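Batch manifest, entry 17 of 40.
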Amino acid sequence: MTVCTDDIASLEQEAKEVRRQSLQIIHDAGSGHPGGSLSGADILTALYFGGIMQFDASNPKDPARDRFVLSKGHATGLLYTVLARAGFFPQEDLVGYRKINSKRNLSGHPHPKTPGVEIATGSLGQGLSVAHGIALSARLDGLDFKVYTLLGDGELQEGQIWEAAMSAQKFKTNNLIAIVDFNKVAQDNITKDLKDLEPLEDKWSAFGWEVIRIDGHNMTEVMGALKRPLDKTRPRVIIADTVKGKGVSFMEGKTAWHGVAPGDEDLERALKELE
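Output type: structure tokens
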């Protein structure tokens, strides 16, 4: 189990190990999504190992826990690696990734049977609505937990995202923190060539959200945004500018590495670059 720390150098090293292990299990499975797993690694490392999220891995259903929803549900190579390293289940169980009848239900998209997973996701555009509902439940139950959700930039083109954004503002759901993994590359094209999201800050601001924009690979900026005190009446969105395939030169910014597992030679080269 990785010890939580706010030391930036330690978190940067942990993010590097998360990237390496994510690529390894995707390679071993022969399928998965390396590009988006690599782009979100710094964000999830900060959340789980930077003392941001409050959770007890030995008691994953603790009512007081903070919740995390992986809206971009295809990035399970990243999520399962982080959950295993955080102690929700043994790291050796990652051998079952994307395999039938795996010990921890490590399917290609998250399933709540997996320790640490709150809800099934992967039908893109739905995660923010679900996260908002969970955040509202805290108010109804008199609990003081936060709900974090990681969105892909491609799924921001879904109308349901903006319906949820309006609802969260309407109900002043200030314990909801959305993080956009803005890696600018969708499944088969550059995001702006599908539908240009910019000016993205202005859009979220117009919907009544508190908006923070950061370099999603600068751990100091990531931690600073996540540690900032919440607004009293507004939900928060952190727009994290990232690079798809971050850390592996031949994957960076390439649509080809959205959903293709690295072969033996690709993996060896990638792991060497991430040393």
